Amino acid sequence: MEIKFMSTLLLCLLWMSAASSPLQPDHHKARRFSGGANESVTVTINLQQSVSTIGPHFVGVTIDSRRVWERWDSLDFTSKKVQNMARALTPTYFRLGGTMADAMTYVLGSATDLPESTVALNHSKFNMTEDQWVTVNEFSRTVGWDFIMDLNALKRNADGSWNPDNARQLLQFSADRNYTIAGFELGNEYESYQSVFNTTLSPGQLSKDMVTLQSLLAEFPQYYSAFIVGPESGDGDPAHFRG
């Protein structure tokens, strides 16, 4: 079941309101929970000492890349209500990414000018238009979120290396408009490539591609210091990161 964007923000706000309630001054709190017919568990919490402290960006929001071609119009980024709720979540990371990020081409022009074969909305290839990219970045800028973009890792050269040309076009377009992008991700859940895209990407090649991405960001002073997140694994199998 997919939760609408506005509803997700509202749920986050309600959660934060509850989580921000001050702790009671008790030294310890104990609770007993019934774990079954003949089992109970006692949990003791020390409220005088923290185990660790998380950073201010502990809230993150992701819009799945699939939404770029599936029900994009249902996301009203211009809604004042959504923008006001979004501002209340700052500071937060806003990621556009997911499985279909590795099928996405960034088209910096009118989608109506593209050949039909290019704009076909299928699971092997689809486009993110200039208007969509502008909308996401303007929203992020307006509400003060820190944007993270999941780049297409399956654009490959003949030798199997990552081809950064389309990503370079996207960065140039963004730099010309002074868009702030906090971080970049290259690809999504590499272990699923075989089942979703009928291809594979070795850990060794992935490491080389990360170096290529780092070199690409160095071409743009505005994005030179942007962080790179990943590699990402959906099942956590360490075998995907060896070799």
UniProtKB/TrEMBL annotation:
Renumbered to this chain, the signal peptide range is: 1-20
Against Gene3D superfamilies, the record matches this protein to: Glycosidases
Supply the alphabetized keyword list.
Signal
What the entry lists under InterPro entries is as follows: GH (IPR017853), Glyco_hydro_79 (IPR005199)
Q: Name one GO molecular function term.
A: hydrolase activity, acting on glycosyl bonds
GO CC term (a single one)? extracellular space
Q: Which domain of life is it from?
A: Eukaryota
Q: Which family does it belong to?
A: Belongs to the glycosyl hydrolase 79 family.
Q: Which protein are we looking at?
A: Glycoside hydrolase family 79 protein
